[in-house]
Every structure is written in C-alpha cells, then in structure tokens.
Amino acid sequence: MANHKYVVTEEETGERLDAYLAHKSSRSRSLIQEQIKAGRASINGKCVTKSSTPLSFGDEITLSIEERASSSHLEPVAAALDILYEDNHLLLINKPQGLVVHPAAGHSGPTLVHHLLHHLKSSTDFLESAALRPGIVHRLDKGTSGVLLIAKNRKTQEALSEQFKSRTVTKIYECIVWGQVHRPGTLKNPIGRDRIHRKKMSSRTTKSRAAETRIEPLTLFSAFTHLQVKPLTGRTHQIRVHLSEFGHSIVGDPLYGKGATAKRLELVSKPIAFQLAQLQHPFLHAHSLTFQHPVTGIEMTCSAPRPQLFNDFLSLLGSYHADGK
Questions:
Q1: Domains of the chain, with CATH numbers?
Q2: Per-residue pLDDT tens for 217-243?
Q3: What residues are labeled active site?
C-alpha cells in the first residue's frame, strides 16, 4: 500500500477531491474514486468517502492507495470462452445464457470475471485493474446471450466506459415477444426501482431515470413477434421492462413476463407449448455492438450468432405460421 500526503494550495482551492488526487498521484480518476469510497482518503485527519468533496486552502490530504484491494481475493476459474475478437487492449466474447458477468450479492458461483482472470492470467495490467469487476465496461443479464466487450487494462476500461456513458456505442438486440408488434416505435417510460417489488425495475417508482428503446418487428407469427431492439440508454433491465409494460413481454422472461398462461397456450400448437415449458432463460440476444477502438480510433462492429435454442424456436414458429398456430 502506497501512502501519499499533500497540502492544498490557494490555486487548488475549490477542486474536487477525486480530481485533485488523480492529478497529484498521476493515477486514473476511477482508481482514486475506488480508494476514496473504500475510506482510504482523509482531509485534515478526517476520513472522507465522497469523491466530489470540495477542497479548501491549506487542507492536508492523505491518501493510501491499495492497487489490488478489491480483486485480489477472486480466484481464476478455467472455462472455454467464445471469443469473437481479441487484441492487446480488448476482447469481445459471445456470452452464453446462464452466465453471470461479475460477482454480486446473491450469487456465489463462478462468473465471467473469474473466467477472464484465468484467460488473462499472464496479463499484469488486467490482474492489477483493482476492481471487483476487472475489465467490465457494460453488462448483460444472466439469461441474456450475445456480444460483451471486455477491457484488458484500466486505461482501456475507462475509455470504453466513457463511450457507454456518452451513448456513442450502438447496441442492437434481438428478442422474441408475446403477441404481434406490427410497426416500429420508440418506448420511453422512465425506469427506476419498483415501489413494491424491490428486485424489479419499472415505471412505477419514486425515483426514475429517462430511458429510451427503439423497436422494429422482423417477423410476425400468430402469437409472437421476432423483434430487433435498440436501447438508446442503458438502464438496468431496460429492454425487459419496456417490452413488458408495452404489453409484449419477452418469451421466457421469469421476472417481467407473464409466462405461458392457459390463455396464451390456447393460441399455440402443442410442440410450441412443449418448448415453452422447457425454457430456462428469455429469448433475448445482444446481436451486435458498434464502438470506437480506444487506441486505434477505428470504428468497430462485432456481431454474435444467436444461440441454437433461439434459432430452433424461430424455425418451429415458422413451421406453424401457415396454419395460424
């Protein structure tokens, strides 16, 4: 652990604590914010955990930097990764359904982060990224498959995170929803934590954030629609919430979908009903991601093939489309 001490000059008065320490220590701002949040910064001997704290002339600042404090306890776990692209700075993988992206409360098993630690075990930059979520710049829900972008070092992670924050990354999803969606449109319900069901997000909330999702029907079936979805914001569960509140929940969604009710099953054939009963995850797939490479500056687009189960279900729907079932 490295200890640093500074005294605020008159010219530095009014600066934010995180910006001040990032400049003084020549470390990344996100690293500094991690240290502040962990209680490793003090002003005049008093611990401060708010990064935006303004500084006054003559303040004595102490900072203790622990580079690998958060991730050192994570154990690498071997697993085959479906790598779509990889270079010295980043990689893109096709995440399978059922894989949790990073450690979180309520999940004790291996995550993608554990597998990345094994895959990149020879990379000092990745191992020292000092975060519980090393390399992660965005996430996909456990049941969602598709393109996931991973940073191999802190500098790349910060640059990519900024692209997501500024909404310059284009994300295209595919999903299968209940009912027929006949025309393109934009869903704009603000989203926040549901007032009653705290594990869910919804527009029924006391603290919402703007959310926008564009949808376009690809194929209509008698009781379903294959949709292309483009989220313009990145709220938690955004696509699932918007489509559910639109009245067209994603097939197989255990949290926001109404499931295969008796009324719905009357609209489909027995083979389709049988497949619905076997589903363990929703039909939601991150099809493609377009972003600017943080080092070369080149615009990149990466696509991931749909899971076989997704394709099989589309084929099954197509085979019964002619007779209305």
A1: 2-65 (3.10.290.10), 69-155 (3.30.2350.10), 167-325 (3.30.2350.10)
A2: 999 999 999 999 999 999 999 999 999
A3: 141
